Amino acid sequence: MQELLLLLLPVAAASGWFAARKSTRKESEARGCETSPVYFRGLNHLLNEEPDKAIDAFVEMLEVDSDTVETHLALGNLFRRRGEVERAIRIHQNLIARPALSREQRAQALLELGQDYMRAGLFDRAENLFRELKETKLHVKPALHNLVVIYEKESDWDACLEVAEELESITGDKLTLQRSHYHCELALTARAAGRAADAAAHLKKALSTYRGCVRANHLQAQFAASQGDFKSAIRTLRQTAEQDADFLPEVLPEIVANYRHQGDLDGLRDYLRQVVDRHPGVGAELALVDLLIEQDGEAAASAFLAEKLAEAPSLALLLRSIELNARMPEQQSARFLEGLRPHIRTLLEARPLYQCGHCGFAAKTMHWQCPSCRRWSTIKKRHACDAEA
Ligand SMILES: [Zn+2]
Predict the structure, then answer these.
(1) How far apart are the C-alpha atoms of 109 and 69, rounded to whole Å?
(2) DSSP H or E segment with residue 59
(3) Residue 363, beta-bridge partner list
(4) Helix %, strand %, coil % for the chain, to 5?
(5) Which element (helix H / strand E) includes 381?
(6) What is d(CA 383, CA 389) in angstroms, rounded to the nearest whole number?
(7) What is the DSSP track for 140-197?
(8) In the chain, domain spans
(9) What is the DSSP string of 117-135?
(10) Would you say the pTM of this structure is higher than 0.85?
(11) pLDDT by residue (tens digit) across 29-40?
(12) DSSP code at position 98
């Protein structure tokens, strides 16, 4: 607050002096140079340690003319950045109400006021301003960017599409992935309303807009499966997972379910074998264990699990092994548990022992200064039972 007042005090004084000088000129220099009474009121508030009232008084006395528009804009900006949105709004509204503003100044004030409204969560008002700004042909780009944010918040996907296309034509940036997601949203809305043909059309558009849109492919597969077309659902999901393997853990359960709905267990087995070889650790191992139990029996499944545990132990594989071996005779069980010990040790050793309490950076050894966030003494040993291991 204090630094704001330091900024305002001389500006307000100068403005008061200018204003006084102008009026005295008009009044044939009858009263000579004088300072505005509002200025003294502000000073009075300041001396009484009422900085809020002081600021309001100084802002009130700042005359809006071509010399002080920049000051008003800077002040409004400052208030918004400090989170004092109401003050920022008052200043910018006051600016816009002045007829003397140039076209560029008015557009600048509209943009600022729109940003105040966004900050205050008054999206309806912000939308109107940004639409008006768009018509002025000034600051069109930030206006459109803000409109996209507003329409996304309101889930008005048709409007999002319209604005995104305008943005593309102005900036030359390609917003294809973004537009593809808007079509996905429209497809979901259409499906929820029972308009299957519309939904399908939007998905088609989503994919023609952005061929590799994982979400659109996923939705298309879900639509196909819901209509009993498991074969095409499997094909789409497999293609999607091949394009982007990071997406595999997300779609694998659906691929498995679709193979099972189709009754193609051999096809499922071939596919899971492929995934286990190419992408170990994404969850295909456990699906294959289930299938092996059904087709070859528990012993074959156990042997497969033991093999995978030896290659790359994981908590999920360990848990499944314990579940599988719970029904074993006692002697065999003791040997089995002994066999798990090295895997558990490997998993424990792979875990970081230290962690930064500030940024979450994980480390194997102690650092007094966190290598990630550079804070001191924020790295601590994790739980004592982990440390003992
Ligand atoms: Zn840190």
Answers:
(1) 9
(2) helix 51-61
(3) 354
(4) 75, 5, 25
(5) strand 379-381
(6) 10
(7) HHHHHHHHHHHHHHTT-HHHHHHHHHHHHHHH----HHHHHHHHHHHHHHHHHTT-HH
(8) 278-344, 351-389
(9) HHHHT-HHHHHHHHHHHHH
(10) no
(11) 444 445 667 667
(12) -
109-121 per-position pLDDT tens digit: 999 999 999 999 9
**What single-letter DSSP state applies at residue 376?**
B
pLDDT along the chain (389 residues), means of 10: 60 53 44 58 68 70 69 86 89 85 88 93 94 91 95 95 94 92 96 93 94 89 92 93 85 94 94 91 89 90 88 88 79 78 85 90 91 92 57
Between the CA of 351 and the centroid of ligand 1 the distance, in Å, is 17
The owner of tokens 């007042």 is: 5
Distance 71 CA to ligand 1 centre (A): 40
* Ligand 1 centroid – CA 386 distance (Å): 20
HSE, side-chain direction, 13 A CA sphere, residue 218: 19
Q: Is residue 265 left, alpha or beta, with left meaning phi > 0 and alpha meaning psi from -120 to 50?
A: alpha
Q: How close is the Cα of 349 to the center of ligand 1, in Å?
A: 22
Work out the number of other CB atoms within 10 angstroms of the CB of residue 315.
10
CA angle 140, 142, 146 (to 5 degrees): 115
Neighbours of ion ligand 1 (CB under 5 A): 356, 358-359, 361, 370, 372-373
